[in-house]
Each structure stands twice: as C-alpha cells, then as structure tokens.
Amino acid sequence: MVKKVFFWSITAGTLSTIACLIYDRIYFFALSADFSKLINIGSLTGANLIGCLLVGAGFWLLNRWLPKRGELVFNLIFSMLSFASVAFPISVSLPLEIKHPELFPGLIVPMHFFPAIAWYTVRPIFMRPGNGA
User: Fold this and answer.
1) Which of 2, 9, 51, 122 has the least CB density, counted as fewest CB within 10 Å?
2) pTM for this one?
3) Which of 131, 119, 130, 118 is nearest to 5 (CA)?
4) Which of 6, 8, 133 is nearest to 71 (CA)?
C-alpha cells in the first residue's frame, strides 16, 4: 500500500508539474506577464512534488486510521485545502519592480488546483474501483 501511494503521489506530482509549466507558458504568451522571478521550473517542480507527496502521506494515514471512510474524509479535506490555499496568492504583495502585478493571481490561482486534478485523474491507475485502499 505504501509503495502504491508513493508512486501515485510521484505520478500526480509529475503530471501536475507538467500542467503548471504548460499553463505558465500559455499565460506568458497570452498576456506578456513575466513572473519568472517568482514562478520557475524549480519552484513549480518542488511545490508540486512535495505537495503531492504530502497528500499521499495524508491519504495513507487517513486510510489506515479510518479504513471504511478514509478516502471520503481525505477527498473532503484535500478539496477544502485546495480551495483554502487560494487565499495566499490573492493576498500576496509583489515587489514594485514586477510588471503587471494584478495578473499574478490569474496565473497562480488555477495552479493551486492542478495537484488535486492530477491526483484524482491518475487514481484509476493505482486504485481499483471498490477496492478502497
């Protein structure tokens, strides 16, 4: 079980990182808003992989503590935390030398949902329906 959740986490983190990088490039070319000093390949990779590994640890723990309802509780907590995490990029003040700071939330807010989307997308690869954990 631990091995399965670990690989699920790595896969979701990698998929989420790729989605973030693609979205970053699309956003840059569409709006010419360059936030590369704040958001770059390293920060996106680190945030997504570490985030998904923490999510995997939470999934494993909840399924261990609550065998029948662990996944349901996990899904509720993960979804709520994804929505709550949006508060940070909306409230952050960017340095004055950054052009178009008002466009920053439009870049980063959707990225907060990519780990959850990736996690739920690759679930069928690692979990058989009705198998629970």
Assistant:
1) 2
2) 0.86
3) 119
4) 133
Cβ neighbours, 10 Å, residue 87: 11
Q: What does the alpha-carbon distance between residue 98 and residue 101 come to, in Å, rounded to a whole number?
A: 6
Q: Tell me whether residue 98 is exposed, middle or buried, using C-beta atoms within 10 angstroms of its C-beta: 0 to 12, 13 to 18, 19 or more.
A: middle
**What residue ranges do the domains of the chain occupy?**
2-92+102-126
Of 79, 19, 83, nearest in space to 45 by CA? 19
What does the pLDDT look like over 76-130, one tens digit per residue? 999 999 999 999 888 888 877 888 888 889 999 999 999 999 999 999 888 876 5
Closest listed residue to residue 58, CA positions, set 41, 37, 81: 81
DSSP state of 85: T
